[in-house]
Design goal:
single chain, three-stranded antiparallel β-sheet
C-alpha cells in the first residue's frame, strides 16, 4: 500500500494504543486491499480466540482519502477495544453484545456498530487535535 497510508496507519494505531490499549498486549495486523465487492470500507476480525481475544486483523479498503482512511482505521480500532473490553464477543459463531445474542439484527441495528460510528467522530477529533500539537 502507498507509503503515506503506512505512516498514517502506524501513527493512528500508535496513538490509539497509547490512549486506550496500553495495558493490554495486543497483536494487530492491518491488511490493505480492495473491499468494494464486499461493500465495506473496513473489517475487524479476531484471530486468536473468543474468550479473551488479543490478536486482531483489520482489513481496510485501499486508496481512501485521508479523512476516510483515518475514520475507518479509528472505527475498526474501536471494535478492537470493544472486543478487549468484553462487550463484543463471538460465542460459538454467534455475535453477542454485552452478553445478548445479536445475530438476528440488521447491520445498521447492531449496537457495536452504532457505538463505533458515534465514537469514530470523537476519536477522529481527538487524533487530529493530538496531531496538531
Amino acid at each position: 500500500f502507498p507509503s503515506h497510508d503506512r505512516r498514517l496507519c502506524e501513527s493512528i494505531i500508535s496513538w490509539f494504543d497509547d490512549k486506550y490499549l496500553k495495558r493490554f498486549k495486543v497483536e494487530l495486523e492491518v491488511l490493505h486491499r480492495g473491499l468494494r465487492r464486499e461493500e465495506a470500507m473496513g473489517w475487524c476480525s479476531v484471530q486468536d480466540c473468543d474468550w479473551r481475544p488479543r490478536s486482531f486483523l483489520i482489513e481496510i479498503q485501499s486508496n481512501l482519502d485521508f479523512d476516510a482512511y483515518a475514520r475507518v482505521i479509528l472505527h475498526e480500532m474501536h471494535h478492537v477495544f470493544q472486543h478487549i473490553q468484553g462487550d463484543l464477543r463471538d460465542k460459538r459463531g454467534i455475535r453477542c453484545w454485552k452478553g445478548i445474542d445479536c445475530s438476528m439484527l440488521d447491520y445498521e441495528d447492531m449496537p457495536w456498530e452504532q457505538e463505533a460510528y458515534r465514537r469514530e467522530q470523537e476519536l477522529y477529533e481527538e487524533y487530529m487535535a493530538f496531531m496538531s500539537t
